[in-house]
Structure formats: C-alpha cells, structure tokens
Write a structure and sequence with these properties.
Layout: E1 13-19, E2 26-28, E3 35-37, E4 48-57, E5 68-73, E6 89-94, E7 102-105, E8 123-128, E9 133-135, E10 141-144, E11 156-164, E12 174-184, E13 197-203, E14 211-216, E15 228-233, E16 241-245, E17 251-256, E18 267-276, E19 290-300, E20 307-308, E21 312-318, E22 326-329, E23 332-333, E24 342-346, E25 356-358, E26 364-367, E27 378-387, E28 394-404, E29 412-413, E30 418-422, E31 430-437, E32 449-452, E33 462-466, E34 471-476, E35 488-496, E36 504-516, E37 522-524, H1 538-569, H2 579-582, H3 637-650, H4 700-706
Parallel strand pairs: 6-12, 13-19, 21-28, 30-36
Antiparallel strand pairs: 1-4, 2-3, 4-5, 7-10, 8-11, 9-10, 11-12, 14-17, 15-18, 16-17, 18-19, 20-23, 22-26, 24-27, 25-26, 27-28, 29-31, 31-34, 32-35, 33-34, 35-36, 36-37
Length: 717
C-alpha cells in the first residue's frame, strides 16, 4: 500500500505505478494506493521486481511528491522437486570386489532457494538394488555392499536411486533415477575339461599337417580371461601329433605331424593340458588354473596305394648304349592286408620320356633310343605304380638317369689362340699360360698333357713346358726376335686327355713379335711400326708430329694474309669503291667495258665505308642519309646489285652510275646507248640534252647540268 501525507482522503490525489511488471504482474488502486498481484508469481522465474510509484494532483496532473522506488521480493516456497540431470546412469565394477568398492556418484539439483529453509536440501537413498549396493545420503556416492559378487552368477544390476528435498522430511518432494551396473570379468575361474577322456578315429591316409580332431576345455570367464593354451604332455604317441588353439572357438585342434600306418600301429594315447594365458595373482590361492584330459586315437585301416621302396631312384647309363639295355628297376609293394599286385607305367610329360621304357610287371627301365651326353646329360622320369585290385590308387616316384660320358671328343686349347713375344725376350721366358677344354664330361682325376708337335720340336724358337696341373707355359728358346725378319710364328701344340680311349688334338698358337720397353711392356705390334726409327720413343714421335702441324698452320696463315693483302690493294681504304669507276682519265666503253676497274671490289662489300662523301660531285645542301644494310660474305651478287640499284633509285644525290646496277651481267649495251662525246658529229653546243630528263631520277643531275631548266629541289623525289 502506498500513501502520501498530502492525501487527505478527499480524492484529490492520484497514485501511479511504473517499472518491472507494472500493469502486467502488478496493479495499483489510483485512489487508495493499494498494490495487487494480478497473476501468480514464480521465484525460479524472477526472484524480485523493481517498481516506481508517484502521487500526482488529480486536477493539475502535477506531482505532489518526488517519484519513489521500491523492490518487491518473491518469497520462495518448496514447489520444485530434485532432478537428476545426467540420468539414467551406466556404471561398472569388477566382480569379486570387496565391500565399499566405489561404483559411481550421482547428483540431483533442486531449483528452490537454497538460502531459505530446507526446500533445496537433498538427501539420497536406494529404493531398489539392496543389499548389493549402498549410497551415501549426502554425497550420492554408490558403493558395493556385498563381498565376492560373481559375474558368472549375475552380471547386470539395476539400482533405483531417490533424491528428496526438505532434508528427507515428510512432505518433501522427491525425484528418482536408474543406475545400470555391470560386473566386469576377472580371471577367477580355471579352464575345465567337460570329460576326462576324448576318443578320436583317424584314417591312416590322413595327410601330415591336417586336423584329425578337436577337444575343448570350458572357462566361464570372458574375453582374454577365457583364452586357453593347449599342450600335449610328453608320452606315448605324443610325438606324432601336435595341438594348437583356435582363437575364435578356444578349441584345441589336434594335427598330424607324421604319417600313420595301420599295419604298424593301430592306436595312440596321450594327455592334453589346458591352461589360461592371462593369470590374476589375486586368485592363485584358489588352485592351479589348468586341467588335464586323456586323448585316445584309433587308426582306421584304409585301402592305400602301393609304396615304393625308395623316395627317389638314381640310375646311370653310358651314352651310345644299345637300345633295349636295362639300366635299373623300381619296386613298389601293397602293404594292405590283401597285398594286391602292382603295375608300373611312365608319367609322360614330354618327348624326352620316349628315350626309355618300363616293364609294367617287373618295373625294369630300359633304353628306347641312343643317348648322347652332349645333348642331354640327365633325364628326370616319373614312374607311377597302381594296384591291380584298385587302379585308382596310385603312387608316384621320381627317377633321375645320369648319362655317363664316353671319351669321343679330343681336348682343345682354350683362348687365347694368339699371343705375343718381345723382340728383346730372353731364353726361358714364359710368354703365355695355356689351358685346355674338353666337350666330354671329364671324370674325376682326368688330366691333360701338353707338348710340341714333332715337326716343331726341332725348331729353336719356342717350347712348351707342361706344369702337370692341366696348364702349360709357352717359353722362348733363343735370345731376341726381329720383326723385320719374321713378324709371326705359328706354334703347333699337341694336347692329350687321360680318358679311354685317349683323344688328342693339335692346336696352332699364333705368336706375334712386338716391340717392348726394357720392362717388357708392349709398345707396338703393328706392321707399320717396323719401319719407324728404332731410336725414337713415342714421346719424340708425338713432338715431331706437333712441329709438323704447327708449320702447316703457319704456312696456311701466311698464304691467307698474302691473299688478303692483294685484295686490299684493289681498293683505297679511305675512298668509296665507286671511286674506281669515277676517277679515270680515259672515257670508258659503257656497260661492256669490263677492263676499267676490278669487278672483285664490288663482290667484297665489307670494304665499302659507310657515309663516304663522294668526291666527283659537289655536295648539295639537300642530302638524304643513305643507309646501307650490311651484306654477308656469301650473299648472292644478284641480291647485292639489286640492293644497290634500289638505293640509287631513291637517292637524288647519287651519280648516274647505270653500270652499278648491272655489273653482274654481260650485256649488249645500255638502253641509253653511250654517253661519251667521242664520235659525236655535233658540237656540245648543238646537242640537245632535254632527253636526259626522261631517263628518270638517276639522270636528274645530268639533266640539270646540261639542260636549260634550272635545278628545283622541290622536284627531287
């Protein structure tokens, strides 16, 4: 309620209200000043309102007092229950945890005013989940309440948590949430075989490495805690089998390590041990985390193919052995109780197998064609044996046949077939070591012998020294050799082998005489080198050749300079080449007169000097600069003359050198005929030179000089 001291209660004062919520939340009686709330208030929405009130005169509308400000505070009541903003919750705790093991902390919030009363004071409690878990009423921490909770017994727990305000007193508001708790696995259970004896039946034809059976131990744990390792306990039959773990099913897979034979042994017994890979030291006291079972394997009798007496056969035969000669035999037996007969045949792979045949009953192998060791030294055959009672049961064996050599080829000297000897060689000097090669397959201990042929043994030039290790040395027998007397020597060497029958051959070794230095290093073996001076070394010869080359270069340069000097005398270095045409005392004969000057000066445009002022013409004040593009040395004379002709056509200061444009050609005379006054019948005064004006700009100056018209520079083009 608002009231002014100036209000006498006669209705002359009017009260007004402004500020937060004026007119919408709060209203004022203009006469009495009573303030009313026109709708319900929510402290959680707006805890206070700031308003301004004023008393004004009803008649004049003027304020009777200054505007006053006041605050309306909303008083809190318990109208909000606690809420779990993060619920529902998911948590986990290891199985077998002790009492009081931490699981999770939950938190509820209350929107009421925590500073006023107990409206926001929250207390936690468990409505569902006892006696397994407990909760702290103030902090909301959930802990285990029972010891040794086993995941294998129960894995999932659902706990219902309540949060109540007003300190949990009667009349307080409450909120709930759910906590789903999972017990995680620990390795607290050893593997156990469901039975103590496993019986397996294995056919005797099972392949080595194949799986012959599976056994399994059960471990109630989960994940890596349930991983099992299987091992065979050493004992009877354990060396024929192996066991591995299937990582997906955790089963023990028994595999065969060696072949089985029903006729040799019909049953095997051994023990298998199963143990955990990952152990937990907290549970060692429970007992050993492993278990043992017995495995009995019965071998089943099967109809097996024949068995060869050897895994592989090796035979030998000499080359050129007559066709049909037996070189060996293979043997296979049926080890089954019925003992069926065996038949043999060859596994044809290629045409090479046709060199041999096999007896189907006895298994003897004989030659079918003549053999040549030099063509094929070894044959690899595949022999198949099958049972008569069951031809589908077959076995295969490889037979290697080595073709033995018969000494039919003589030995030959290995490369090189040519060697050299120095002119200054001394007697007994070894100039070459030779070896021999034989196309035959040399047996162990075969040796080659070397000697000179009978016709060469009497010559005093060279000899052969056999070192008796399949090598020999060529030695000199005299002091010095001369290339001028004999450049090549041919030495016949006889080589014999030690096989039977003995084979020998005569090989010719070419020996070339060469010039060497004092150390025996070869300097020259060419035929041309024979005629060189004996006393000159290679360095001296090179120096002589260099001197000759230098002299030739000097001569060539001298001749070139002489030619250049002759060309320079044909023209004056400080005058234009056309001065040769202008400055003469005799009148020329026109275009056909080629003796007036050297035409070669025109063919060498480089001697022309640019911007040369002509001496036969008086310079005029009107001069056009003449630009002469440079000509290359190999420019065709036709292009050069045409270029000069074009320059003179457009240059009014150029003299009337008709001959410059056509010097490259031998003509029959100028179109304008001769300009000479010789043989002219009329005198100079009687002649009419007006026709010079019709000849073009090249004769403009002559027309101005001899004509009646005066020179007009404006007409020059």
């Amino acid at each position: 309620k608002l009231h002014s001291d100036l209000d006498k209660g006669v209705g002359t004062v009017k009260y007004t209200l402004s500020g937060d919520g004026a007119g919408t939340v709060f209203t004022i009686d203009e006469t009495t000043g009573d303030i009313h709330a026109i709708r319900s208030l929510d402290r959680e929405e707006k805890p206070f309102y700031t308003l301004r009130a004023q008393a004004v005169d009803v008649d004049t509308k003027k304020p009777l007092e200054p505007e006053s400000e006041f605050i309306i505070k909303v008083q809190d009541i318990n109208d909000n229950e606690p809420k779990f903003l993060d619920g529902p919750y998911v948590a986990s705790v290891p199985e077998m945890s002790p009492v009081g093991a931490y699981v999770l902390q939950v938190k509820a919030t209350d929107a009421d005013d925590p500073t006023y009363g107990n409206s926001a004071r929250v207390v936690y409690s468990i409505l569902q989940g006892q006696p397994y878990f407990s909760i702290d009423p103030k902090t909301g921490v959930i802990r285990t309440a029972l010891p040794n909770m086993d995941r294998e017994v129960k894995e999932q727990y659902q706990v219902l948590i309540q949060a109540k305000d007003m300190g949990g007193q009667l009349g307080g508001l409450a909120g709930t949430t759910t906590v789903n708790i999972t017990l995680t696995d620990v390795n607290d259970n050893p593997p156990r075989f469901p039975k103590s004896i496993f019986h397996l039946k294995v056919p005797e034809t099972s392949h080595v490495g194949s799986a012959v059976g599976r056994i399994r131990a059960v471990d109630p744990d989960f994940g890596k805690n349930a991983e099992i390792e299987y091992n065979i306990v050493p004992g009877d039959g354990g060396n024929l089998f192996d066991i591995t773990t299937d990582e997906y099913t955790q089963e023990g897979v028994i595999k065969l390590k060696k072949p089985l034979d029903f006729e040799t042994k019909k049953a095997y017994t051994f023990k298998v041990e199963a143990s955990n890979l990952h152990l937990d030291h907290r549970f060692h006291s429970v007992g050993p985390f492993k278990d043992t079972a017995t495995v009995k394997i019965n071998v089943l009798d099967m109809d097996e193919p024949p068995v060869f007496s050897k895994p592989m056969y090796t035979m030998e035969v000499y080359e050129d052995t007559p066709v049909g000669t037996i070189i060996g035999a293979v043997t296979a037996q049926d080890l089954d109780a019925g003992s069926s007969s065996v038949r043999y045949f060859m596994d044809w792979k290629n045409d090479v197998d046709s060199y041999f045949t096999i007896d189907a009953t006895e298994g003897t192998i004989a030659t079918n064609e003549l053999l040549d060791r030099e063509s094929t030294a070894q044959y690899n055959l595949s022999i198949i044996a099958s049972k008569v009672s069951n031809p589908l049961l077959t076995s295969k064996v490889n037979v290697i046949i080595n073709v033995l050599d018969v000494n039919e080829f003589p030995p030959e000297i290995s490369i090189p077939y040519e060697t050299s000897v120095c002119e200054n060689a001394k007697p007994g000097q070894v100039i070459q070591i030779i070896t021999a090669a034989d196309k035959d397959l040399s047996p162990a201990g075969q040796r080659f012998s070397f000697k000179l042929s009978s016709e060469a043994s009497n010559k005093p030039n060279f000899t052969v020294h056999d070192y008796r290790n399949n090598t020999a040395g060529i030695e000199t027998r005299r002091n010095g050799y001369s290339r001028r007397q004999q450049e090549l020597y041919f030495l016949p060497v006889v080589i014999e082998d030690s096989s039977y029958p003995v084979q020998s051959s005569t090989n010719t070794l070419t020996i070339r005489v060469c010039r060497c230095d004092s150390d025996g290093t070869i300097q020259s073996c060419n035929v041309e080198a024979i005629f060189l001076p004996v006393g000159l070394s290679t360095g001296a010869l090179i120096a002589i050749l260099l001197c000759i080359v230098i002299l030739l270069v000097i001569v060539v340069l001298y001749v070139a300079l002489r030619r250049q000097k002759k060309k320079d005398t044909l023209m004056t270095s400080k005058e234009d080449i056309r001065d040769n045409v202008i400055h003469y005392d005799d009148e020329g004969g026109g275009e056909e007169d080629t003796q007036a000057f050297d035409i070669g000066a025109l063919r060498n445009p480089k001697v022309i000097e640019d911007n040369k002022i002509r001496r036969d013409i008086k310079p005029d004040t009107l001069r056009f600069t003449r630009h002469r593009p440079p000509a290359e040395d190999n420019t065709d004379i036709r292009d050069f003359i045409n270029q000069r002709l074009q320059e003179n056509d457009v240059d009014p200061s150029a003299p009337p050198y008709d001959s410059l444009a056509t010097y490259a050609y031998e003509g029959n005379g100028s179109v304008a005929e001769s300009l000479s006054s010789i043989d002219s019948l009329a005198t100079e005064a009687d002649q009419d030179y007006d026709y010079l004006s019709d000849w073009g700009p090249r004769f403009k100056i002559l027309a101005d000089m001899f004509g009646e018209e005066s020179y007009n520079p404006d007409k020059v083009t």
